[in-house]
Amino acid sequence: MKKILSILITFLPVLSYILFAQILFPDKYADFNEVYSAQTIRIKNYNDKDMIIVNQYEENDFYYIEIVSTPEITIEMYAGSTGMIYANGTNFETHSLNVVTDSSNILIESKQDIAIYGNYSVEEINAAVASNNVSISVGTILGILILFAIIKSKFTTNTKITITLTVLTVVFYMLTSIVTDIYWVLLLADAGWLAGLGVNMIPTRKSRKKKAREEKLDDFLGNV
Question: What does the radius of gyration of the chain's CA atoms come to, in whole angstroms?
């Protein structure tokens, strides 16, 4: 009983972190490249290319639009009665703020309905799933597995084998997707490198002239 209690106490801080930081109160901004929040927001896109968005949804008295990808757009933000505008990790105490961006994976948060001017198309994603998604990061999972590996000496032989097999299964499962990404990056890098070598092999005008001069010189010296 004492051993089990010791193990539970060991895992209690970790489980508390997962429960509060990643399940009950997750950082809703963590998965986005850019985040803009204000009382009122207008999005303006006057490019020929469409801005691709997830259809606007409402949650906890806020309106949200997720911009999947976009050409250059202007985001006009107005503080209203709050007096504060949030933009990419910084709070600005100002009446209004305009930002020009052409990034991707952008979250727009507003207390009022978000107006969009110009070209856009909607990517169909279930808003309920998108807004209520709960996930535990890969880093957290790896941390837990490492902790299991460290304290497995406290367990019985059968438990050690179970933990070892579980750890290896999860690690290699994650490595599968990681290795796949590495494979494609390296494969594309190989293709780019070979294409670059091919371009370098094409003789330039300067090199052709130099070669012609060398051939003329060789012919002249050969006839002397």
Answer: 29
The residues near 46 (Cβ < 8 Å, ≥ 6 apart) are 117, 118, 119
Give the global pTM: 0.50
CB within 8 Å of 23: residues ≥ 6 apart? 134, 136
Instruction: Note the pLDDT tens digit of each residue in 109-164.
Output: 999 999 999 999 998 654 444 444 445 566 667 777 777 777 766 677 777 777 77
* Range list of β-strands (E), the chain: 34-38, 40-45, 51-59, 62-69, 73-78, 85-87, 90-92, 96-101, 104-110, 115-118, 120-123
Claim to verify: residue 109 and residue 179 sit in the same structural domain = no
Question: What residue type is 223 in one-letter code?
Answer: N
Residues 78 and 164 in one domain: no
The confidence score (pLDDT) of residue 138 equals 63
- Regarding whether 127 and 166 lie in a shared domain, the answer is no
In 85-156, alpha helices (H): 127-131, 138-151
Whole domain around residue 212: which residue ranges?
155-224
DSSP 154: G
51: Cβ–Cβ under 8 A, 6 or more apart, which residues?
43, 45, 67, 69, 70, 71, 73, 116, 118, 119, 120, 121
DSSP H helices in 80-156: 127-131, 138-151
Mean pLDDT is highest, among 27-41, 58-72, 201-215, for 58-72
